[in-house]
Every structure is written in structure tokens, then in C-alpha cells.
Design goal:
mainly alpha, 9 helices, about 0% strand
Length: about 180
């Protein structure tokens, strides 16, 4: 059913995706789909997550910079995939007009990843790697906002070198200066 939802989405877009079309493509009844998902937004989000989840986790290297670069590079690889990136763009676009889809995208995509990112920033703060008063939410917005902007407008690359530069630009203002002994 997840594969069917992705296939139909690629062929028709979000507007053309229906529970009926998913049921037909998957060879199941609509009741079977509704047993698992409340609506087409929920099944499409789950299909998307199943495709990308193994590739976008955060690591814990002990370095905020390395953890952010590694995760941002993984995310950029997903967003740079012609099918998955297009799916994200379409979902974000449709979410502007569909509150159900916006809620599903936020609850299932953004919120879990944001929680994991906050843990990474908070660990860095606890290690004394960044200022104690660094706003973890703003750190994430500062790193990930440009990724989505680049995805949507295509004005700049999403390659690892660009991401390293981006992360460096963001965290250079957060790093605690080394203490010098007098």
C-alpha cells in the first residue's frame, strides 16, 4: 500500500492521489487502508518516511559540527534524490493549503527529527562545546532552513562541501572560545 501511494503520487501528484486509487493499485479494499491510515496524507507521509528514515538519523560523534554535517549531508542526499526531493517539495506545497497534510507532515516528519536535533544541540551544550545560553531551536532553524530553501528554489547546491560551510557559519558564533591560562 505504501509503494502504491508513492507510485500514484509520482504519476498524478497529491491532488490525483485518492484512497480509491491506492486501494486499486495495491489490490486491497478501502476498508483495509482505513484500518491503518485516517486519510491519504497519513499514508503518503508514512510511505515517504519508510523510504527515507534509515538514511537520516543523527549520530553522536561527540562533536556538534560533525553530527550536524553528517545529518545534514544525509538529509541533503534524500532531498537531492529526484523522486524524494520532488515529493518533499510537493508535500510542502500542498501542506500550505491542506491543514490535514500540514499536521501529518509536521507531526511525523518535522517533530521527530527536530526532537533528535535538539538532543544533539543540548548534548553539545552539556559538554561545554557551545554557549550555555545557545537557543537550540534557533540553531536547528539556522542549519536546516537553508537546506529547505535550496531545495525549494534550487539556487545553490546541496553538496557536502556547501553543507560543511553552512554548518561552520552557524556554529562559529556558538563555539565557546578556548580558555587561556594566565
Amino acid at each position: 500500500m505504501l509503494d502504491a501511494a508513492l507510485k500514484i503520487f509520482r504519476e498524478t501528484g497529491y491532488a490525483g492521489l485518492t484512497i480509491d486509487s491506492i486501494a486499486t493499485e495495491a489490490g486491497v479494499s478501502k476498508a483495509t487502508i482505513y484500518r491503518w491510515w485516517a486519510n491519504k496524507a497519513a499514508i503518503l507521509i508514512e510511505a515517504f518516511l519508510a523510504s527515507v528514515e534509515p538514511h537520516i538519523g543523527f549520530s553522536d560523534s561527540g562533536s556538534l559540527r560533525e553530527d550536524l554535517v553528517a545529518q545534514a549531508a544525509s538529509l541533503a542526499q534524500v532531498l537531492g534524490d529526484p523522486h524524494l526531493g520532488a515529493l518533499v517539495v510537493a508535500l510542502l506545497g500542498e501542506a500550505q493549503h491542506d491543514v490535514e497534510l500540514a499536521a501529518a507532515f509536521r507531526d511525523n516528519w518535522q517533530s521527530p527529527r527536530r526532537a533528535a536535533g535538539l538532543e544533539v544541540v543540548n548534548r553539545a551544550r552539556a559538554r561545554g562545546e557551545i554557549h550555555a545560553d545557545a537557543d537550540a531551536e534557533l540553531v536547528l532553524d539556522s542549519v536546516y532552513g537553508p537546506l529547505y530553501l535550496r531545495l525549494l528554489f534550487g539556487h545553490a547546491p546541496l553538496d557536502e562541501q556547501s553543507l560543511r560551510h553552512l554548518v561552520d557559519q552557524v556554529i562559529n558564533g556558538l563555539i565557546r572560545p578556548a580558555r587561556t591560562s594566565d
